[in-house]
């Protein structure tokens, strides 16, 4: 169980509310689509869930353990468990897909290994297992710069999982991708929820959220307008965003 209460984010000298008193309660294994107009606070919400943006106020619990008590950045021990995937994943384009996955793993363990480039065999096998799971085994030794946009997104997902991510916050993960790549990325994310009981919260166009997600959050002006589970939206609900 993941619970968020009284989440607010205030920014600027004018104390503008980017996120305003959001309350959420959801289970591990859900795939949640976040929809809303530009500037509504969708990306900030994702960054808050992934502990990339400090909370002005709010309480955050994960599997019964307190991550944030009364605002702030949250406990550092959860940073690797809550992954944030940007629209264009930050990969080293000169390194292979495998090395991009392993860079993250080494960075989580030992700065000496990070500097020397030494990797344990179990790290290597774990990275290869994730790449194979998502149809990228044949791309393991291909430079990231030569991968398609959809393949780079899946490499970023593999890297997050090797870190030990239990929640993936994906900010428009299929923007700019063709229909085939979009289907591949979203199917990959949905399989994580179904097979591994990971939780995915993704900013998506409404039609894709309705197609792939088990739940949809509508955000407008920093507020949660509705939380819909197991069905499509009504016309009245769509008008709220």
From TrEMBL:
Alphabetical list of Pfam families matching this protein: ABC_tran (PF00005)
InterPro entries noted in UniProt: AAA+_ATPase, ABC_transporter-like_ATP-bd, ABC_transporter-like_CS, MetN_ABC_transporter-like, P-loop_NTPase
Species this chain originates from: Paenibacillus zeisoli
SMART domains: AAA
GO molecular-function terms, A-Z: ATP binding; ATP hydrolysis activity
Keywords: ATP-binding, Cell membrane, Membrane, Nucleotide-binding, Translocase, Transport
SUPFAM superfamilies xref list: P-loop containing nucleoside triphosphate hydrolases (SSF52540)
Domain ABC transporter intervals: 2-241
PANTHER family: AMINO ACID IMPORT ATP-BINDING PROTEIN, PHOSPHONATES IMPORT ATP-BINDING PROTEIN PHNC
Protein name: ATP-binding cassette domain-containing protein
């Amino acid at each position: 169980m993941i619970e968020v209460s009284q989440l607010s984010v205030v920014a600027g000298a004018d104390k503008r509310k980017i996120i305003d008193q959001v309350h959420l309660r959801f289970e591990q294994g859900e795939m949640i689509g976040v929809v809303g107009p530009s500037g509504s606070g969708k990306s900030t919400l994702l960054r808050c869930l992934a502990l990339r943006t400090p909370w002005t106020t709010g309480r955050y619990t994960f599997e019964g353990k307190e991550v944030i008590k009364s605002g702030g950045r949250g406990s550092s021990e959860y940073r690797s468990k809550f992954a944030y995937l940007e629209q264009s994943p930050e990969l080293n384009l000169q390194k292979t897909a495998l090395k991009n996955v392993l860079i993250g793993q080494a960075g989580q363990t030992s700065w000496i290994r990070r500097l020397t480039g030494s990797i344990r065999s179990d790290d290597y096998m774990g990275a290869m297992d994730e790449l194979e799971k998502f149809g990228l085994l044949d791309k393991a030794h291909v430079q990231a710069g030569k991968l398609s946009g959809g393949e780079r997104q899946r490499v970023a997902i593999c890297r997050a999982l090797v870190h030990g991510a239990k929640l993936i916050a994906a900010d428009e993960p299929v923007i700019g991708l063709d229909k085939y790549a979009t289907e591949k990325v979203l199917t990959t994310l949905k399989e994580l929820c179904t097979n591994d009981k990971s939780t995915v919260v993704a900013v998506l166009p409404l039609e894709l959220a309705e197609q792939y997600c088990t739940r949809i959050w509508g955000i407008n002006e920093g507020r949660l307008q509705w939380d819909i589970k197991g069905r499509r939206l009504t016309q009245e609900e769509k008008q709220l965003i």
